[in-house]
């Protein structure tokens, strides 16, 4: 069975005042990961599965993160916070580092990460990014499960946009809405570890699922999807586990 599969999620982010409106769906990534873990156990799938729920409470206080702050991540990477509302990728990054230390066969993260994914793909398609073979396996599983998904690139030419003059990375682009989902994916990719301790080892196979659009349905029911939380990617991830097993 190898070292198994790790699921990682941006988790629950509680936000203050007016920005709480509409945030009930901000924990859909955590809900999906927990649902997949429970289903895999109940189905007794012969594959090792570990889940990390990266849960944070984003509230104002004397210790709140401010624009311009520099955070040190779990692996020592420093991140300049340009947008405090791009907090999900910060907690998710630490989860990816923790998951990578176990050197699993595959890492999958699930998060309602960017509003930009809704602009790109609407509200029914899940955005998929990551390593070629791992993404292909997920898309095959999603097709079998009947879950609409679409692959997006992680273009190397955008890597320079992550650079900070005072830290290793920035967590967001300011004043530039172009390809916000791809920027977030590139940010997360930096925290996916190596498959072994060798300096030249490849990165652990990784799939990033942005369900900001597909995780919550505001309209009338269609197919087996009702109004509200959709459980987007749960069925596809179970199919993926069956294939890995």
Report on this model:
The protein has 245 residues and is an alpha/beta fold. The chain has a single domain, classed as Zn peptidases (Aminopeptidase, 3-Layer(aba) Sandwich). 28% of the residues lie in helices and 18% in strands. The strands form four sheets. Strands 3-1-7-11-8-9 form a six-stranded mixed β-sheet, with helices on both faces. A three-stranded mixed β-sheet has the order 5-6-10, with no helix packed on it. α1 (28-42) crosses α6 and α4 crosses α6 (234-244). It is globular. The protein starts with a strand and ends with a helix.
Q: In brief, what are we looking at here?
A:
With 245 residues, the chain is α/β, with parallel strands linked by helices. Helices cover 28% and strands 18% of the residues.
Largest sheet: 6 strands, mixed
Q: Give the CA-based shape.
A: globular
Q: Give the CATH architecture.
A: 3-Layer(aba) Sandwich
Structural class: alpha/beta
Which strand-content bin applies to the residues? Answer: 15-25%
CATH topology category name: Aminopeptidase
- End-to-end Cα distance, whole Å, is 7 Å
Number of domains: 1
Work out the helicity level. 25-40%
Overall strand count: 13
Distinct helical segment count: 6
Name of the CATH superfamily:
Zn peptidases
What is the CATH level 1 assignment?
Answer: Alpha Beta
Low-confidence blocks of residues: 11-18
Sheet with most strands: strand arrangement: 3-1-7-11-8-9
Q: What's the alpha carbon Rg, rounded to whole Å?
A: 17 Å
Overall pLDDT confidence: 91
Order of helices and strands: EEHEEEEHEHEHEEHEEEH
